[in-house]
Amino acid sequence: MGKIIHTGSRKVGVAPGTLIHIGKKQLTEPKITVIDYNADHFQEMVAENIEEAYPFKDSENVSWINIHGVHHVDLIEKIGTNFGIHPLVLEDIVHTDQRPKVEFFDSYIYIVLKMLQYDKEKEEIIAEQVSIILGSNFVISFQEILGDTFDPIRDRIRTSKGRIRKQGPDYLTYALLDSIVDSYFVMLEIIGENIESLDDELLDSPTPKTLESIHRLKKEVILLRKFVWPLREVVNSLQRDESFFVKESTSIFLKDIYDHIIQVMDTIESYRDILSTMLDLYLSTASNKMNEIMKVLTIIATIFIPLTFIAGIYGMNFEYMPELKWHLGYPVIWALMITVALVMLAYFRKLKWI
Amino acid sequence: MGKIIHTGSRKVGVAPGTLIHIGKKQLTEPKITVIDYNADHFQEMVAENIEEAYPFKDSENVSWINIHGVHHVDLIEKIGTNFGIHPLVLEDIVHTDQRPKVEFFDSYIYIVLKMLQYDKEKEEIIAEQVSIILGSNFVISFQEILGDTFDPIRDRIRTSKGRIRKQGPDYLTYALLDSIVDSYFVMLEIIGENIESLDDELLDSPTPKTLESIHRLKKEVILLRKFVWPLREVVNSLQRDESFFVKESTSIFLKDIYDHIIQVMDTIESYRDILSTMLDLYLSTASNKMNEIMKVLTIIATIFIPLTFIAGIYGMNFEYMPELKWHLGYPVIWALMITVALVMLAYFRKLKWI
Amino acid sequence: MGKIIHTGSRKVGVAPGTLIHIGKKQLTEPKITVIDYNADHFQEMVAENIEEAYPFKDSENVSWINIHGVHHVDLIEKIGTNFGIHPLVLEDIVHTDQRPKVEFFDSYIYIVLKMLQYDKEKEEIIAEQVSIILGSNFVISFQEILGDTFDPIRDRIRTSKGRIRKQGPDYLTYALLDSIVDSYFVMLEIIGENIESLDDELLDSPTPKTLESIHRLKKEVILLRKFVWPLREVVNSLQRDESFFVKESTSIFLKDIYDHIIQVMDTIESYRDILSTMLDLYLSTASNKMNEIMKVLTIIATIFIPLTFIAGIYGMNFEYMPELKWHLGYPVIWALMITVALVMLAYFRKLKWI
Amino acid sequence: MGKIIHTGSRKVGVAPGTLIHIGKKQLTEPKITVIDYNADHFQEMVAENIEEAYPFKDSENVSWINIHGVHHVDLIEKIGTNFGIHPLVLEDIVHTDQRPKVEFFDSYIYIVLKMLQYDKEKEEIIAEQVSIILGSNFVISFQEILGDTFDPIRDRIRTSKGRIRKQGPDYLTYALLDSIVDSYFVMLEIIGENIESLDDELLDSPTPKTLESIHRLKKEVILLRKFVWPLREVVNSLQRDESFFVKESTSIFLKDIYDHIIQVMDTIESYRDILSTMLDLYLSTASNKMNEIMKVLTIIATIFIPLTFIAGIYGMNFEYMPELKWHLGYPVIWALMITVALVMLAYFRKLKWI
Amino acid sequence: MGKIIHTGSRKVGVAPGTLIHIGKKQLTEPKITVIDYNADHFQEMVAENIEEAYPFKDSENVSWINIHGVHHVDLIEKIGTNFGIHPLVLEDIVHTDQRPKVEFFDSYIYIVLKMLQYDKEKEEIIAEQVSIILGSNFVISFQEILGDTFDPIRDRIRTSKGRIRKQGPDYLTYALLDSIVDSYFVMLEIIGENIESLDDELLDSPTPKTLESIHRLKKEVILLRKFVWPLREVVNSLQRDESFFVKESTSIFLKDIYDHIIQVMDTIESYRDILSTMLDLYLSTASNKMNEIMKVLTIIATIFIPLTFIAGIYGMNFEYMPELKWHLGYPVIWALMITVALVMLAYFRKLKWI
Ligand SMILES: [Mg+2]
Ligand SMILES: [Mg+2]
Ligand SMILES: [Mg+2]
Ligand SMILES: [Mg+2]
Ligand SMILES: [Mg+2]
Ligand SMILES: [Mg+2]
Ligand SMILES: [Mg+2]
Ligand SMILES: [Mg+2]
Ligand SMILES: [Mg+2]
Ligand SMILES: [Mg+2]
Ligand SMILES: [Mg+2]
Ligand SMILES: [Mg+2]
Ligand SMILES: [Mg+2]
Ligand SMILES: [Mg+2]
Ligand SMILES: [Mg+2]
Ligand SMILES: [Mg+2]
Ligand SMILES: [Mg+2]
Ligand SMILES: [Mg+2]
Ligand SMILES: [Mg+2]
Ligand SMILES: [Mg+2]
Ligand SMILES: [Mg+2]
Ligand SMILES: [Mg+2]
Ligand SMILES: [Mg+2]
Ligand SMILES: [Mg+2]
Ligand SMILES: [Mg+2]
Ligand SMILES: [Mg+2]
Ligand SMILES: [Mg+2]
Ligand SMILES: [Mg+2]
Ligand SMILES: [Mg+2]
Ligand SMILES: [Mg+2]
Ligand SMILES: [Mg+2]
């Protein structure tokens, strides 16, 4: 998962709107795909350069232009000029440490949030900034890296499944947001499963590794919280939007996303709570183990130290030690030692140590 | 008790309103029961299939249709079509990880919340999602598994006890909610009794088992909190509802439920507080036990180690050790040892260790 | 002090307004006392049965009917019928686990809160639910058990001291609330004194008993908080009340109670804070004690273990051990041992252990 | 510093406005001083009795009457009668456990808050309740004990420095409040210096004394917080006051105090946070020390215990032990022992214990 | 980084507006620089004395007067008189412990906040108070010490880069604030990197030094929070300002700063959370290490103590000990000892200690 703050190169005092990319540098070429559709029409293409996508700006159909590679600041600048996007918005698109937010402009709405994907090989969550420009008949989505959660949406458009082909760009935007929020549930499930298995481990056989895992999960949950918390207000603002960009019919679907976000937040808060408790618990479990170790040491030591002392007494070389001459000296001393040991054991049993 | 999040199979990016059940899969057949009544009339039946229940939609009487088995998505879809329920509501009915909420539509109100029951055999709390559709002259309730807290309500309807037969579907909805909230008190009492007995155990004879129980209770309380917290707003919205679905006469009863929910929340917060304190306490108690163990070890060791050293001295084999020849060497050394031991004991008494 | 939740017998799903007593069952007979007064008139009586109190309902004077024993549900029901009290209010009177609240009705105001008294013998705080019905010219107070904080008020009415005889039932209600809130200060003082003495004990000579007391106080404070927190809103509502039940002249007195409640809350929060700190402190103090114990053990062990080893060397029975034959072998070995011991002691001094 | 609650003698149920002093009983005589001034006029006197101060009530000049000794309830009562002050206000003046607040009456404003002074000898903070009555052309201030923070104000009035002589009683009230709030900064600085020096001590050489000091500071900060938190609302209310008591020109000065109070609150919150961290830190430091102690013990014990065992072997008295007869037996055993010791030391070095 | 409160010399009770500098005393001469510009014109000068800067007050161009050295109270007083600044504002400029705030006056806006710079040599963050007076056609900025984050802005003005030369003093003020807020990100990155490296250290090889660093970072974050939290409201007020000082065109840029501040706050909260967790973690790690130490001690001690006892037995000097005469006594005893040791080792393996 990403770090909590990019240790990038934010330049102090540069003019606002100066496009300097802040974030993970991806070495790949940018990839531009266009999907243009309405109830009856469907066209899909991979654009060689951004100029190929310009005509779709004014097509009556819904045009979805998806850009992979926001670190190509020239590309972003061209899009900004052609589609009339404010320089501060362009800056936010390339500064990939944005807090999720929505901003309303006269000719478009700007939405920025985090998409999460799980890298099964590295066993870590990959976070990526996604920006969405919702215009009157186009949607532009900006991503940092290849791969996204949008494939089922592309399929629904291609196969004309569900209502998506009959709706406008606001519904497409809803669909994109919904698939991103759905992906949060997947992450929560992964984290939840990790918590459950750590929880068992914690009480059965905790190791320093367990502690490390709890700590890592806690940091992931703190980060997730940073991503989700502001999203509630984003979706709420979209839903209440009075402009003509978000149609009333889409509003109920946004309400559904809103519910999902609250569910995600609730779960995150529960996880935080449980992980904190688990850290406290680890300490108690470690104390318990220490107690067990100390008991073993104490039992062995307190039984044998007095016995060794007794043996030491009769190992002394004084000339005049009457016991040494006694015929029954040796068995008597054994009897004494066994008695001492039994008394000690009885005492430990009384203390419930054994 | 249920897990904090279902590790189910939420599909990312599927079209909204696509009915895929998320939750515990119950293998039983669905069970549909109908109770139709007014002040003078009473009819009760178990429907073979959902079609038998359709006529009640338009009967003037209050019709209560109860469905067990929300994982039968075909059934839910049929009900949706016949009773005119929005696809997103149907989705929420079958996704059994909903946060409690209420939604107002033109022809019905949708309420979703959690019903809790205690499984005495397994000694665990069973949580189940209950959805309620309140129409103008019918109530449909959806449950995940057989068994509920509604039997006393069925009895009151059958025997015409109290005011229920004279009231409308809003009052029936109130009664269902009231019985569910009452069941929360029962769970709180069970948890409360567990806390009290753990509390005694904690100070008397804590074991790792105690720690485990505290942790389990804490997780249950966190989960309960997730279920109850949003319920306050649900009942509040219902009470303030301006539509014709909730009559003014029912409002004061909803206020009574509202009071109960606040009481439940207060108690949950107290439990959380106490359980956190108990975890801290466990650690202190473990430290105390460690101190006791260490004292025993230290007392034994510090008394006998010097004595053993003295014995060791006179176990040495030097040719010229004058003490060994003394007639009183042995008793003098015993006197020395006893003195050392008594001084040590006096020291420990001064430290208040013994 | 009472438990955080009554482990009583709340019945799930019973009709609202069904009077089942939940709380501590008191075996005594109910006791009904009536005080009827105005500026010039005073009458006091103990009623044999509730019917004797009915006439006072319509007397022009202020009539204060006090009932001890809310578990006599028949009695409560009769009062409900005669004085026109809503069944849900009656239910709340006999369910003695209410959260403090006020409810406004057309012909009366219903107030419920907790009265606290200190049982000096058992050294514990006794909590009891008090319900107050404020009518146009009567006040009915309901208590669980005999004994209350109202005696000074009775005296002021009897002796016509202060303004009470010249005022209406709203002022009497104020006086009752004021005496209950004053009793919270008494409880806070008792808890405060306990905290101060535990605090000294904690740093001087903490024992597991200290820990237990801190925990008990913490639970009492959590419970007190549950009782006081909602009271603020109760008094605030009464003060702002627009109905004719609370006269404007009484409002400034309610403001005075409001101030007191805030003071109580502030103190409770401080106590919570301090008690939490004390729990943390206990752990640190236990760790300190452990360090002291370990130092004693380590000093003794690390001094004598090497010495015992040296003695062991010269206790070996090899035929060819030249040192054993030396004339000065024994005193040289003593010198060596003393040197080792002194070096060890110097080392511990350097570590500031001794 | 004062206790968190006075363990005084609040009487339950006494009539409101009954003057019983609650607080520290001061044995001194009350002291009454009067300063009467306007731009051109200045008069200062110590009054023998309160009657001498009465005439100033109606003088056109600003009259500042300062009373030391609120436990003289007769005196307070006389002032109340002559200046027309509400009995509940008089009660608050003599009950010196008030929460800071402001109350607006027709002919005066009542302000109550805490003045803090540092007793250098006892090294403790002294808290005292100050009540201020702001009338149309007089100010009465009530203090518990001799000594205050008002001397610089008296000087400014005497020497006609600054704007004070040209302003009304509202500006005098501002000046009194400002000097009290300024004194909070002095206390914060004292506490802050204590925290800094404890912080160094904590990481260098913590002792149980350090723990005690952290705990004492934490309690002082909790108490300070109780005094300052409500003050924000007090000054805010004064500033917004619409009555003719607070002139618009004084409002900007009250805003300045408001800023100061927020600064004080911010600092208090930071201190709370840091002190909590320091308590946690102490525990970790204690654990570190324990680890150091245990390492010393373990190193010494694990080196010498095996060696002592070896020595013990060859101290046995079996008739047939071939090694004992060997010519090189003794040096070989020494070599073995030294090897064992070196291996142990190497092991500890690998563990980074030494 | 600065202390949480200046241990300066705030004088209790001095007249408001009396200029006494509170803060770090800088011994340098004050330094006054002026930059005067519009779209076509640019002039830059270092003023010998403040009188040289007076004419710029009324120039039509944007005039930026920057003052280094707020401890020169005479200088501040002269500026106050000439530019008509309220005495309380001047007081705030020289009291360098202000909470960030904005105040609106008829002829100017006063803004105060903290500028942060990193001293690479001392490896610490330097905080300094910056005050900004925004007039109709001038901006005065006040700093405590030489060096600031404004150089890129000076360059943009000099080289006419970006829009700054075409905008008014409000845009210059925005640029100053933006560069200060940008510097917070730099500090967060430095702290973030520290946290990451401590986090690795914590789980791998924690030392008391690690603990000290965590504590130091936590205090820095607490301080940073004090600086940033009120800034949100400052920028929000500026943005909503209805006066003619902040033009509508600048508002969107202020919104951009507002976003940045929220981002900073989010990150600060995450850091606080993580650092608290790290403190808890340190304790657990210390406990783990203790367990490891104790295991080593216990394993060695419990193996050799019984063996040494056995050796002690046969070191006794009783005349009648039959085993001593046995031919195989010595090897049998070795066999016994090895068996005991192996049993012990098997037991420890079962406990998973080795
Ligand atoms: Mg910038
Ligand atoms: Mg931006
Ligand atoms: Mg990223
Ligand atoms: Mg992507
Ligand atoms: Mg904790
Ligand atoms: Mg979806
Ligand atoms: Mg959905
Ligand atoms: Mg849904
Ligand atoms: Mg479920
Ligand atoms: Mg069921
Ligand atoms: Mg009720
Ligand atoms: Mg019920
Ligand atoms: Mg009920
Ligand atoms: Mg009830
Ligand atoms: Mg009770
Ligand atoms: Mg009673
Ligand atoms: Mg009062
Ligand atoms: Mg704690
Ligand atoms: Mg009273
Ligand atoms: Mg009172
Ligand atoms: Mg009072
Ligand atoms: Mg004084
Ligand atoms: Mg000042
Ligand atoms: Mg903690
Ligand atoms: Mg001042
Ligand atoms: Mg000031
Ligand atoms: Mg100021
Ligand atoms: Mg500077
Ligand atoms: Mg920037
Ligand atoms: Mg920016
Ligand atoms: Mg510990």
Automatic annotation (TrEMBL), chains A, B, C, D, E:
Q: Could you tell me which NCBIfam families the record lists for this protein? A: corA (TIGR00383)
* A Gene Ontology molecular function term of the record: cobalt ion transmembrane transporter activity
| Matching InterPro entries | CorA_cytoplasmic_dom, CorA_TM1_TM2, Mg/Co-transport_prot_CorA, MgTranspt_CorA/ZnTranspt_ZntB
Keywords in UniProt for this one? Cell membrane, Ion transport, Magnesium, Membrane, Transmembrane, Transmembrane helix, Transport
Could you confirm whether the keyword Phosphoprotein appears in this record? no
Source lineage? Archaea, Methanobacteriati, Methanobacteriota, Stenosarchaea group, Methanomicrobia
Q: Which family does it belong to?
A: Belongs to the CorA metal ion transporter (MIT) (TC 1.A.35) family.
Q: Where can this protein be found?
A: Cell membrane; Membrane
User: Taking the first listed entry, what is the main subcellular location of this protein, grouped into a coarse class?
Assistant: membrane
Cellular component GO terms held in the UniProt record: plasma membrane
Can the keyword Cell cycle be found in this entry's annotation? no
- Functional description taken from the UniProt entry: Mediates influx of magnesium ions.
Record's protein name:
Magnesium transport protein CorA
Looking up CDD domains in the UniProt record yields: TmCorA-like_1 (cd12828)
SUPFAM superfamilies reported for this sequence: CorA soluble domain-like, Magnesium transport protein CorA, transmembrane region
Topology class, membrane: Multi-pass membrane protein
Q: Which organism does this sequence originate in?
A: Methanococcoides methylutens
The UniProt transmembrane annotation reads 296-316, 328-348
Family matches, as Pfam families: CorA
Q: Which domain of life is it from?
A: Archaea
